[in-house]
Give the backbone structure.
Amino acid sequence: MPATIIIGAQWGDEGKGRAVDWLASDADIVARYSGGDNAGHTLYVNSEVFKLHLIPSGILHPQAVCVLGNGMVVNPVNMVKEIDQLSAMGIDVTPERLMLSTRAHIITPAHITLDSVQEKARGDQKLGTTLRGIGPAYLDKIGRKGIRAGKMSDLENYLEALTQAIEQTNEQLRRDGLPLIDLDAHLQPYLEAAERLRPFLADTTVFLNEQLRSNAQVVCEGAQGTLLDVDHGSYPFVTSSSPSVGGALSGLGFGPKYVDRVIGVAKAFSTRVGSGAMPTELEGALAQRLRGTGENFWDEFGTTTGRPRRCGWLDAVILRYACAVNGFTELIITKLDILSGFEELKIAIAYQIHGERSDYPPSTMEELQHAQPIYETLPGWSEDVSGIRRMEDLPKNARAYVERIAELCDTPIYTVSVGPERDQLVHA
Ligand code: GDP
Ligand code: IMO
Ligand code: MG
């Protein structure tokens, strides 16, 4: 069966982009199914760093057709910028290789303004969004007043819808005594972007189904992570889409009969950017060591916003839950190299919540805030593992760490990454 779904198993930034880039080497299609340019997927190929926000990570493989699925919310101006940046780096980003679903939703300047206004209004209850307009765009989609990408093929109609959306938001901003959106400043760039993107528009649902029926290999690229899922995540500190397995099917429009693998990507420790409880969060020197200084592009600073990521020990409670929600067939563990040199490592194997032990995260934020991790301590390793390519060559303690993750999650490990380069992977 031809479809493989790649999903973040934590709070995003697990290394999904590099996993997809690797799996895309023999894929016919790579398709994003949820989110928008809140995502930041970093690829490192032949000493060049590529930071992708909207365009799928398969774009560096010339044989792969890339799809932005119906489940996405797309800022058209930023999509054009990304196409131009990649083209300037010598990547072929033509309509033969890239398709935008006519059913995807457009992020308007009104959504971006509302994202900021709503974050400010939350005061110290801020969600810490990426301020890309994601939440307001999905709200309009669910409220049945969004603008779909297909509208860009009828420019007059599209501009009318855009003008109406901005004027309506301006009325609200005026009532609240807030600065208004400059309609004229936005119409021209949106018009130009629509003209540029029109050739990329396609019924990607029909395309994907036809391709899957004829056995094309499709890699579905998740954005964000299971704990940021609006249903399954640490609500309300989540994104507004469904980054988990159900979102892949609804966000691309094909059925489960085509799916044979659902691969979870998990970092060898925990990170989170934005607000919300994170039971294994560390402070001080240990956190800094996991985060890095920011000198290396792989250090824990947001790809989209540059914010330092919160860092902590690996949380197997969260991982076990992500395995359950998504039915992962395998896990890819990333950034094992960062753990070299720690004398000992901790893994949260359960939580203690109000005196009770729990193997799964609670459903409420209040309880998650009170969750005390129950740790297991494992011995560390001092060796540099970045050059290792076979599981049996890993230092004994590194292998034991990885094997323990598989055991705690009852899910096999597919591969372990030990550096950001395409080939820095350890296979079983
Ligand atoms: P994504 O959003 O899930 O695609 O992840 P990001 O790209 O936001 O963050 C992951 C970061 O870790 C990127 O800078 C990757 O280049 C880097 N990375 C991925 N795997 C490894 C690894 O095994 N070791 C190291 N050192 N860096 C890695
Ligand atoms: P990738 O695909 C990490 C977080 C934000 C915030 C919350 C809501 O690179 O893993 P939003 O702008 O979506 O309304 O913000 O979700 N968030 C991410 N965190 N990686 C991401 O994407 C994220 N996309 C959104 O920080 O806490
Ligand atoms: Mg990221």
User: Anything to note?
Assistant: Residues 40 and 304 are 5 Å apart (CA to CA).
